[in-house]
Write a structure and sequence with these properties.
By secondary structure, this protein is of the alpha/beta class. The protein contains 25 helices and 18 strands. The strands form 5 sheets. A 6-stranded parallel beta sheet has the order 5-4-8-9-3-10, with helices on both faces. Strands 11-16-15-12-14-13 form a 6-stranded parallel beta sheet. A two-stranded antiparallel ribbon has the order 1-2. Helix 4 (95-105) crosses helix 10, helix 6 runs antiparallel to helix 9 (189-205) and helix 12 packs antiparallel against helix 24 (550-560).
Length: 601
């Protein structure tokens, strides 16, 4: 595919910057198009974000002022990346942040600005709405036996409304899922919708706003607000929810120039309402331009990706030859974990940096097992869903050090003073702790001293530290899991000092990336290991029960298109703990076409 140099200059009102870049003919067609409505279908690794940024620079080069350009994306992380790469003055926001700004800008003069509701305030307003709907409440109780006036049931309804995100489609999907916690709502969706509408009006009258209502109210406000924008560009358009698509349609009535970037083959957020398989349905008069060449994928990885979706058209093409993707069949989950460790050791031994290796799984539980296996072999991981808490681990070790000090004092025939032990706990926390909490921890400390094994003493030290951290409000949500990661590691040590040195050493080394497949979307690594290519895992158990596995197939596609060099697929028996079901068959997505694209030892 031909490439050309393209030269950009900033308008005179900005600092003069000149860049020479190489773009393909497909990219140049997008960058230079004069069409006002454009839908860009971009395959994985095709330089979508760079093309979007180059399009913005071209608009500036043509004299469009930076404050006339709006770029919308779907997460704070994506917005941060775009802000770093786009010229100053260009507005870059998430859909919800932009919508919230519209709502606030159109608030009536003299009225209070809408405030984003806290969970407690949202709960209080829902209780008010339930009281105002006696007929709906009575109908729900008659049909299901559920009393929505009870605090427990009201709290459950809050969770349901939050997860539905204002979407009737999502509500229907949740109640059909036997494991969602809401199947008993299946006969009363109409009543719950009536309560939700009263709740929405109650929120608005109270001067508040929540996320489901944010875009809906912003869409209504668009008709009367002053918009400075002449061009709107949308990143990752395939992830739009129904509410976001409706809002964008309203925005398109006010702004003529709209450009959407995305890949329907990577639409994997249907569980939160993102089911926009063809985003031309939002902008019906859009012309379609494509980015079909992947700079990330090799020909071999592209062939695997194309085989997964079994597409004869809209295929992705690689940019170079590489290594054939592999599939390893494991006899057990433990063997799969051992294979992960062996692969990582081999890749690092060949010179691959640890942070260029990613371990991806369908569920967090699968990934955590791989993390534990790697940590046991002195390979630390950087989790995409659970931030590492080394400062807290070291403080828990301070508690363990106190346990050892108490043991040493006891062995010397002396009894450690109570005030001294309490003072040490206070110093470890560095914050005020209520005396009853300290007294409770002192009793646990006395028990810890009597535990014979180092691992057991570590477990008790963690229990004490968790109690203190929670009492001071200084406990991240993942703290118990993070402290628990090191329990198995303890078995290789006999004292706190050596374990502390080990933790510090691992915290400083380059880390293997671990993530769910959803969390890995948008990322790329030299080597990608995909866990559990097994029925019940990929496709996932719940989606199999629903009879809806098309999104799972796209998720598998997303996983294999993260690799710049090689994809390593692992199949192993998968145990779905909530249902107690053991799945042993390879994934249905390992079709003849897919297997033909793999190297199988």
């Amino acid at each position: 595919m031909a490439v050309k140099n393209i030269r950009f200059r900033r308008p005179r009102h900005q600092a003069m910057i000149v860049k020479n870049m190489k773009f393909t003919q497909e990219q140049l067609a997008i960058i230079n198009t004069t069409a006002s409505r454009v839908a860009v279908w971009a395959c994985p690794g095709s330089g979508k974000t760079e093309t979007l940024c180059a399009r913005v620079r071209r608009l500036l080069d043509r004299g469009v002022r930076s404050e006339r350009i709006l770029v919308l994306s779907f997460s704070d992380k994506a917005v941060s990346v775009l802000k770093e790469r786009l010229p100053p003055g260009v507005t870059v926001k998430t859909f919800h942040a932009f919508g919230f700004g519209i709502v606030r800008s159109t608030a009536r003069a003299g009225s209070n600005m809408p405030l984003l509701l806290t969970p407690k305030r949202s709960f209080d307003l829902l209780k008010q709405a339930i009281k105002r709907c006696p007929m709906a409440r009575s109908s729900v109780k008659e049909k299901t036996g559920l009393d929505l006036s009870l605090l427990y049931e009201a709290a459950r309804l809050v969770d349901f409304i939050k997860r539905c995100n204002g979407s009737d489609e999502l509500a229907a999907r949740l109640v059909r899922d036997k494991e969602s916690g809401f199947p008993d709502y299946v006969e009363v969706l109409a009543e719950l919708r009536a309560i939700r509408m009263v709740y929405d009006r109650t929120v608005e009258r109270a001067g508040g706003i929540d996320y489901p209502a944010m875009l809906r109210r912003a869409g209504t406000a668009l008709a009367t607000c002053a918009l400075p924008f002449q061009h709107v560009l949308v990143d990752e358009a395939q992830d739009m929810s129904a509410e976001q698509a409706t809002f964008l349609s309203a925005l398109a009535e006010r702004v003529r120039n709209i450009m959407l970037f995305g890949d329907p083959k990577q639409a994997v957020y249907g569980f939160i309402g993102g089911r926009l398989n063809d985003f031309r349905n939002v902008i019906r008069d859009a012309v379609t331009l494509e980015l079909t060449r992947s700079f990330r994928l090799t020909h071999e990885n592209a062939a695997l990706a194309n085989a997964i979706l079994s597409r004869d058209r809209d295929c992705v093409s690689g940019s170079r030859h590489g290594v054939t993707p592999s599939l390893v069949r494991c006899a057990s989950a433990t063997e799969q974990e051992d294979m992960v460790v062996e692969l990582v050791r081999e890749l690092i031994g060949e010179g691959t940096e640890a942070n260029h290796i990613a371990i991806l799984g369908r569920t967090k539980a699968q990934v955590r097992l791989a993390e534990q296996a790697l940590l046991a072999q002195n390979f630390e991981t950087d989790s995409g869903f659970s931030e590492r808490q080394y400062a807290h681990v070291l403080k828990a070790l301070d508690v363990l050090k106190l346990v050892q000090a108490c043991i040493g004092t006891a062995r010397a025939g002396r009894k450690p003073k109570r005030d001294w032990r309490a003072g040490r706990l206070f110093r470890i926390m560095g914050a005020n702790v209520r005396r009853p909490v300290i007294e409770e921890c002192l009793r646990w400390l006395a028990k810890a001293v009597r535990i014979p094994s180092f691992e057991g003493r570590y477990v008790m030290a963690v229990r004490i530290y968790l109690r203190l951290a929670r009492a001071t409000g200084n406990a991240p949500v993942n703290l118990a899991a993070e402290l628990g990661r090191w329990q198995a590691v303890c078995r290789g040590f006999e004292n706190e000092r050596d374990l502390r040195a080990h933790v510090r050493a691992l915290s400083q080394q380059a880390k293997i990336v671990t993530s769910t497949i959803h969390g890995a979307k948008g990322g790329e690594w030299r080597h990608v290991v995909v866990l559990g290519v097994t029925e019940g895992s990929i496709p996932f158990y719940r989606e199999m029960n629903r009879g809806d596995v098309a999104e799972e197939q796209r998720l598998f596609y997303v996983a294999v298109t993260r690799a710049r060099e090689q994809v390593h697929l692992l199949h192993a028996p998968f145990h779905h703990a909530p249902s107690g079901t053991m799945f042993t068959e390879p994934s249905r997505f390992l079709s003849e076409e897919v297997v033909a694209a793999l190297a199988i030892p």
